[in-house]
Request: fold
Amino acid sequence: MSGAMSGKLVCRRGARRPAGAALRGVALRAPLSRSRLLACFVALVLAGPLFAQAATSLCVNVPAEDPEALPCEVIRHEPAPPQPGDALRVVTFNVHLGADVPGLVQAIRSNPRLSRADVLLVQEIESHPGDDRAAKLAEALNLDLVYAPARTAGDGTHGLAILSRYPLADLEVLRLERYDLGFRGTRRRIAMAATVHLPGRTVRVYNVHLDTRLTPEERLRQLEPVVAEALQQPAAIIGGDFNTITAVSSLLPLMPLPVPGFSQATGLDAYMHGQGFATPFAGIGRTHRFPMRLDAVFARGLEVFGFDKETSVDVSDHFPLWVDVRVR
Reply:
């Protein structure tokens, strides 16, 4: 059972950390003895409301009083050993709902660049009863997981995930400004933040999925809370799907038709560069099946020494991007 998502105590076999493992005070999955299984069953029956309340504290919500906030799901595995050296490889990937988890796993494992990811930022993944896609992906890749739902979707949720071979701490969900998108209404947007604990150093990572039909000014305002927090960190990475659609701003959101030569990506790059972030993907070209550059990774306080996109991966309508960094 997915305790954090359902608001119940996590009592599940199969995790490979010693009993009592925790992530900044958050109870995590651990192997259970028969006595503990019985204790968990009794706890679920008698103390459901207590754990439902505790589940909401898995991630700190910003702002704290957000009435639409949904509980995070946190799972730890015994991750694959870190890659040698002091490099950190970060991958960002919009997985287009993530329905084909085996296909995603195969695409990542079979790609020599993606298979070496230390941190995987996933956008547009869903979790449904009996189909916890983020958890399945993390388990197959043997990575730690934090899943933050942005909104409900049918009988489940739709949101963001951070997977990591290194421990994650100081988990936050940042509420982003909400806009009326015209004929498709409005959607709750969030960003995720977590501190990655490497041996002897830390990096703050942010996972972002912005709205589609925004003007350049609206897009920067929606991103602003993430940038403002990242500027307070000695080393930070902001990655994800920024939805910098190639469209004429004056026609948004009434006519969101792609128009070559009107990409918002160059304006976003200029803004991030002005804030002191490296913009390695400024000249990468399309990151989507259609001719649009929607995805990016920005780094500050870090040395970027390698990056690319993986156009051979066709399990989603987005291409995954990867970047290698070192703490300066």
